[in-house]
């Protein structure tokens, strides 16, 4: 089964819309989705190592700074995972080649 890990680093337990909507789209495409707020819970190495896609929601500079060591750890533990970073400043994505595109309309699209 394809799996996605969606990580926020600065939300203190309040899941951001950017993470919740991405989770809904991925679940609609049949992926098993796990959401983690790294500010509230430890991100286990086994969780990082098991995901096919690891996405980070980084809406501000502080969240980005907090995520940097987690991203490095994710790449070290799971070199084959796709890493996706979504922020207010940029969207850096390496799209999965074999995964279908979401069939529902995208916001702003």
What do these coordinates show?
There is one protein chain. With 109 residues, the protein is of the alpha/beta class. It has one domain (3-92): 3-Layer(aba) Sandwich (Rossmann fold). Helices cover 32% and strands 24% of the residues. It has 3 helices and 5 strands; from the N terminus they run E-H-E-H-E-H-E-E. A 5-stranded mixed β-sheet has the order 2-1-3-4-5, with helices on both faces. The mean pLDDT is 79.
Structure characteristics:
109 residues, globular, 5 strands, alpha/beta
The radius of gyration computed from the alpha-carbon positions, rounded to a whole number of angstroms, is 13 Å
Specify the overall morphology.
globular
What would the average pLDDT be, to the nearest integer?
Answer: 79
Domains, number: 1
Secondary-structure content class: alpha/beta
CATH architecture: 3-Layer(aba) Sandwich
What is the helical fraction, as a range of percent?
25-40%
The first-level CATH class name:
Alpha Beta
User: Main beta sheet: strand number and arrangement?
Assistant: 5 strands, mixed
Low-confidence stretches: none
Number of helices: 3
Q: Say what the CATH topology is.
A: Rossmann fold
**H and E string:** EHEHEHEE
Number of strands: 5
Strand content: 15-25%
Topology:
Blueprint: E1 3-8, H1 17-28, E2 32-37, H2 45-50, E3 53-58, H3 61-77, E4 82-87, E5 91-92
Parallel strand pairs: 1-2, 1-3, 3-4
Antiparallel strand pairs: 4-5
Write a brief caption for the model.
The chain is an alpha/beta fold.
């Amino acid at each position: 089964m394809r799996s996605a890990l969606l990580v926020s680093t600065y939300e203190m337990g309040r899941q951001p819309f950017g993470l919740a909507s991405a989770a809904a789209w991925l679940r609609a495409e049949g992926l098993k989705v796990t959401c983690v707020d790294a500010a509230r819970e430890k991100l286990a190495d086994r969780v990082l190592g098991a995901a096919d896609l690891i996405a980070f929601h980084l809406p501000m500079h502080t969240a980005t700074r907090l995520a940097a060591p987690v991203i490095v750890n994710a790449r070290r533990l799971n070199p084959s995972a796709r890493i996706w970073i979504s922020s207010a400043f940029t969207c850096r994505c390496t799209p999965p080649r074999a995964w279908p595109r979401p069939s529902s309309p995208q916001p702003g699209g």
